[in-house]
Amino acid sequence: MSDPCKILVFASGNGSNFQALIDAVSSGAIPNSKIIRLIVNKSKAYATTRAENAGIPWEYFNLISHGFRQKGETDPAKIQESRDKYDAALADKVLKGDYKPDLVILAGWMYVFGKAFLDPLEAEGIKIINLHPALPGKYDGTNAIGRAFEDFKAGKLENNKTGIMVHYVIAQVDRGAPILVKEIECREGEELEQLEQRIHSHEHELIVEAAAKVAGEILDKKNKTQ
């Protein structure tokens, strides 16, 4: 069997999507792959417990706690400079040492990467994918489900549908090419919390399917060049 697809996961919170990836690698639903490391930016992220239970190394690396930005900083130039330095340091962590991945998956990662992170990984041919709870080109950024729900109530949601996508990550937030998309219809009389639950119930399946698809393409390419 060829070398596995080495996966690095970034997460910020509970890590339920991370757990879905762990389980899928273990079961073979993501074939011939290995999660080599988890990186979190929140010190109390439960994803770290999931990593420990699965024997996966993890690391905490934070913009403020690790000295890139002063807490409470408001100067836009200093904020941007701190982000650039943090992104470059993270890229360095990803690319150096024994943990260089073939694929990076953002699984509930609550931070937007800039070019100082994205460009070095692109130069090395490392794919980055992310799950976003909206359809392509719709509701970029935060509170995507809430904004779709408000438009539905106002009669402005196209075809009364929102959804989920897994996409490649580029500098433009949530605008990278979609890998897999699932439409979800909004229902009359439904509260926001119910819509959120229905959307979240499909996230694990979609991120696993997308990871398997991209990992398979990476392994095919590897095998052809060997």
TrEMBL record:
Per its UniProt entry, what is the enzyme's top EC class, as one word? transferase
Give the catalysed reaction(s), semicolon-separated: N(1)-(5-phospho-beta-D-ribosyl)glycinamide + (6R)-10-formyltetrahydrofolate = N(2)-formyl-N(1)-(5-phospho-beta-D-ribosyl)glycinamide + (6S)-5,6,7,8-tetrahydrofolate + H(+)
Keywords, comma-separated and alphabetical: Purine biosynthesis, Transferase
One Pfam family, short name: Formyl_trans_N
Output the Gene3D superfamilies linked to this UniProt entry.
Formyl transferase, N-terminal domain
Among InterPro entries, the record links this protein to: Formyl_transf_N, Formyl_transf_N_sf, GART
- GO CC terms: cytoplasm
Q: In which pathway does it act?
A: Purine metabolism; IMP biosynthesis via de novo pathway; N(2)-formyl-N(1)-(5-phospho-D-ribosyl)glycinamide from N(1)-(5-phospho-D-ribosyl)glycinamide (10-formyl THF route): step 1/1
Q: Does the keyword Electron transport apply?
A: no
Q: Name one GO molecular function term.
A: phosphoribosylglycinamide formyltransferase activity
Recorded family membership: Belongs to the GART family.
Q: What is this protein called?
A: Phosphoribosylglycinamide formyltransferase
